[in-house]
Design a protein that fits this description.
By secondary structure, the chain is an alpha+beta fold. The protein has 18 helices and 36 strands.
């Protein structure tokens, strides 16, 4: 597989979703509408396989498929009202081919009625099977297959025990309801290895042989018992041509890859994690384009892969008339749910799949959660709970006092939704660099020693723990390249890779460079990547209680809305947005002119900064802010801080201004981030002033890490009042960043320039 094909297949922001623009514009809203149907019964079959049986060579186990099942199950129960008894899960040893087929038949097909909602989810390996029985022409019939736990256990006659994709299509067509959703977090194209950087690819090598007699007999059974539903069914046809009911959402389409990654304490599929997190946040009616933009940004916030490759279509089957009448989802978004109660309902466990995984991995004790409406004490005061410890996605919490008063009879309740109130983070957040396994032993020793002297950076062996990037030799990048013409970096040089194992060309050195010299040279790049990590760590569109809405408009072409986003839990948020969004993927000519409209929906003044992440996180630009009605821009560094009164709107820059705002001037992908605060960015402005450059409309930061560290201190200061009222200990206040979600809001989106 060529390097370009691999990078396209990995599918970061968009290929992880497995869909192109036209498809992305439709799936998100429909998925949410189907699941929110209030009157029908809701049935689900969730399948995940990590550990595979085999008779031959050992198979690399997957790590995130069972977690995917948990993510879907908690979401379906607590956000969309599925009864636990109506959700059947088959994981690892229970997920045999026969068990999956029979469970679909008995749990879904035989129980569902025409108005019911049905969800099927599969996470595991996929592969291509060359059916040696052929199609009558003498050539093997190429079949995509899902791998059940016993899929690698061929019969004595050499028959393959895969779950044929055609069998799944027949099962879906046999459903009595059109309101069905199938989620497939797997892929079929094998890139030559299951491990690519810090990612595990959910594809096995191609195989040849005959499908199992039992599997083919089950297909015939479906054709016989459900003949009217499956009339005209033909093997080998694409799902979009088979008139399947509802939606088919695939993590990867033809020739693309599905992957999973490791976070602190858990692993999960990129597609499943991004999808379920976005649905935890889903609240007011949104256009599909807005839903897609937010999902894109959700994945980008993970900081794993760039949105540099877009997958080919994975078109979901459509059932417009059946879905259009479904009611919208509940109005309250959430970051998690109470899953266990102890100690007279004063402590318990909370599932926190609605908090971004990188942030959750750095969560510290005394991070505070607000229990949503059902959790009020006898005086109607909302209850709060503090995190005591964290294990993967599950936190142990304890109810606390509020405003110096003890709770009056209130307690935790199973199934109660929670929202993030206080985010406690280390003051010394580091960049974690994984040493690529392709390095020689002496190279690894030298690199470990060299990284130990770089401030705010720590080195680990790849796979030992979650990491932000990789350090390795360019020979690895050359190995992935399709030709020398495409990759010209000296083979013996060192540099940095994204977790997908994509080389960052700007970090390459010369061919004579030693490991220690390379690490010293990369100090600035490492600190820039850390600055990007810190900026992403303040992302809180799913929990901020400041009312902010931002709209980006193009001004140098046909007027159109490019991006629109608002905080999701704010009491002042609007009830419907995004109908005028032009496209789910923002594409702007390099240096294109735009204007940003910021509406302060809160009851207090807001200050804001605007940043642009470029060059795979190696550069961060900031913008001077002008707004409509201002004759002359303010002078000096203060012009980089914006301001708006309560319930007011600012628009900048003036389209007639000579200092017209231009987004990233180079082709590629970038990420725009708006950070708002209820207090001035005093320390940030000092850090900007220390850069000693003449104020211009957009400026790449020379010391982005210092600026981001100063911004965190400003947000920490803005949170002081609320922190004092919520019982945070003085030790935590003194030694950690304690950020109140009602004091700041950070909105971001990825865009493409060309």
């Amino acid at each position: 597989m060529k390097r370009r094909e691999f990078l396209q297949g990995i599918g970061w922001v968009l290929a992880a979703l497995g869909m192109e623009e036209a498809v992305l514009a439709r799936w998100g809203d429909r998925y949410r509408k189907v699941l929110a149907q209030p009157t029908a019964r809701k049935l689900a079959l969730l399948v995940g396989v990590n550990q595979y049986r085999d008779r031959g060579s050992p198979v690399t186990p997957l790590l995130g498929c069972v977690t995917d099942v948990e993510l879907q199950r908690e979401l379906l129960i607590h956000r969309f009202g599925f009864h636990p008894d109506d959700i059947l899960t088959l994981t690892d040893a229970r997920a045999t081919r026969q068990s999956i087929e029979e469970a679909f038949l008995h749990h879904l097909i035989q129980q569902a009625k025409p108005e019911d909602v049905v969800v099927f989810h599969f996470s595991g390996y996929g592969r291509v099977l060359a059916d040696t029985q052929g199609n009558g022409s003498g050539d093997p019939l190429i079949r995509n297959t899902l791998m059940p736990v016993d899929g690698l256990m061929p019969s004595e006659g050499g028959e393959q025990n895969d779950l044929l994709q055609e069998t799944l299509w027949l099962l879906l067509r046999s459903l009595p309801t059109q309101q069905a959703i199938a989620v497939l977090d797997t892929s079929y194209t094998y890139p030559g290895t299951n491990l690519q950087g810090l990612l595990r690819i959910r594809t096995l090598p191609d195989a040849s042989g005959k499908p199992s007699t039992e599997g083919l007999a089950f297909q015939q059974r479906l054709l016989t018992e459900f003949g009217s539903e499956n009339s005209g069914f033909q093997l080998g046809r694409s799902p979009e041509s088979l008139n399947l009911p509802g939606l088919v959402l695939r993590a990867a389409s033809a020739m693309k890859l599905a992957s999973e990654t490791q976070w602190a304490g858990f692993s999960a599929g990129l597609f499943t994690y991004a999808l379920t997190q976005q649905l935890w946040w889903a609240t007011v009616p949104l256009s599909s384009n807005v839903m897609v933009q937010r999902t894109t940004s959700t994945i980008a916030q993970m900081g794993s892969l760039p949105p540099s490759a877009i997958a080919a279509p994975a078109l979901p089957a459509e059932s417009e008339s059946a879905l259009a009448s479904l009611l919208e989802t509940a109005s309250a978004s959430a970051n998690g749910v109470v899953t266990g109660v102890d100690d007279g309902a004063q402590s318990g466990q909370v599932w926190l799949a609605g908090i971004p995984a990188p942030v959750l991995g750095s969560y510290q004790p005394e991070s505070t959660l607000l229990l949503l409406p059902d959790g009020a004490n006898g005086n109607g005061i909302p209850l709060i709970a503090q995190v005591r410890s964290l294990n993967g996605l599950t936190a142990k919490v304890q109810l606390t006092r509020q405003n110096g008063e003890a709770e009056n009879g209130g307690g935790l309740q199973l199934g109660q939704l929670v929202s993030e109130a206080i985010r406690v983070l280390p003051r010394d957040l580091n960049l974690v660099v994984a040493l690529d396994n392709g390095l020689e032993r002496i190279e690894r020793i030298d690199a470990t020693s060299a990284f130990s002297s770089v401030p705010y950076v720590s080195a680990v062996s790849a796979g030992d723990r979650p990491a932000d990037c990789l350090f390795g030799s360019a020979r690895l990048a050359r190995k992935l390249a399709s030709s020398d013409a495409e990759f010209t970096v000296p083979q013996s040089s060192y540099g940095l890779f994204l977790p997908s194992q994509e080389f960052i060309p700007e970090t390459a050195g010369d061919s004579t460079e030693a490991v220690k010299t390379a690490v010293q040279r990369l100090g600035g790049s490492l600190h820039s990547l850390l600055a990007t990590k810190l900026l992403r760590f303040v992302g809180n569109e799913g929990s901020s209680r400041l009312g902010v809405q931002a709209t980006l408009n193009a001004v140098d072409r046909e007027p159109q809305v490019l991006w629109q986003q608002e905080t999701l839990t704010a009491p002042f948020a609007t009830q419907a947005i995004g109908e005028s969004i032009a496209s789910p993927l923002v594409s702007i000519p390099a240096g294109g002119g735009c204007e940003l409209n910021i509406h302060n929906q809160s009851d207090r003044p807001l200050y804001f900064l605007l940043f642009d992440i470029r060059n795979n996180g190696l550069a961060i630009a900031t913008y001077a802010l002008q707004w409509q009605g201002q004759e002359q821009p303010s002078q000096g560094v203060k012009e980089y801080q914006g301001y708006t009164d309560p319930n007011a709107t600012v628009l900048f820059p003036l389209s007639s201004s000579s200092a017209e705002w231009k987004l990233s001037p180079t082709s590629g992908w970038a990420e725009l981030t708006l950070v708002c605060s209820s207090a001035p960015f005093t320390e940030t402005l000092r850090a900007l002033e220390a850069e000693m450059w003449e104020p211009r409309f957009a400026k790449s930061l020379r010391s982005p890490l210092k600026v981001m560290q100063a911004m965190l201190l400003d947000l920490n200061a803005a949170s002081a009042t609320a922190v004092g009222n919520l019982g945070i200990s003085s030790n935590t206040v003194a030694n950690f960043l304690v950020l109140d979600t009602s004091a700041w809001a950070s909105l971001s989106f990825a865009y493409r320039t060309s």
